[in-house]
UniProtKB/TrEMBL annotation:
Organism superkingdom: Bacteria
Protein name as it appears in the record: Endoribonuclease YbeY
Cofactor(s) of this protein: Zn(2+)
Primary location class: cytoplasm
Length: 154
């Protein structure tokens, strides 16, 4: 799995944990080992520009996903084909504010947002209630399983 994490923001983050989570999520979703994913962390100004340009909405947001080859989740029997999954853009400043509101760490919020971005790249959405239930359920399951795996590492 080719996953690149690039922190262009002024906030130090645990890039290794984000990388491990992304790899775990892609493996859980049966994405081909030769798939490529880029994760970029940017400051609020850069995120606001992207948010306006691509979503036509003001202000910075927490996560944006830019799918490339429109890969979809695989199964245990058949992985996705290899390809360019796309880019996830995270804003640690927005994540930090959301984490404080939610009562957990900024890293936990970034891991949640990374999982959310991966699922968007794989075609999941949350515009309709049934879609939201499915996507957020998968997101929760990935995060719980990842947290259990991380505890075993330590």
């Amino acid at each position: 799995m080719s996953i690149e994490v690039n922190n262009e923001s002024a906030i130090p983050v645990d890039e290794a944990a984000i990388l491990r989570l992304a790899a775990f999520a892609l493996d859980t979703m049966h994405v081909h080992a030769d798939a490529e994913l880029a994760i970029v962390l940017v400051d609020e100004g850069a995120m606001e520009q992207l948010h306006v340009q691509w979503m036509d909405e003001p202000g910075p947001t927490d996560v944006l996903s830019f799918p490339m080859d429109e890969l979809r989740p695989g199964t245990e029997e058949e992985e996705t084909p290899p390809g360019l999954l796309g880019d996830i853009v995270l804003c640690p400043q927005v994540a930090k504010e959301q984490a404080e509101t939610a009562g957990h760490s900024t890293l936990d919020e970034l891991l949640l947002l990374t999982t959310h971005g991966v699922l968007h790249l794989l075609g999941f959405d949350h515009a309709e209630p049934a879609e939201e239930k499915e996507m957020f359920g998968i997101q929760r399951d990935i995060l719980i399983a990842f947290a259990m795996q991380e505890r075993q590492r330590h």
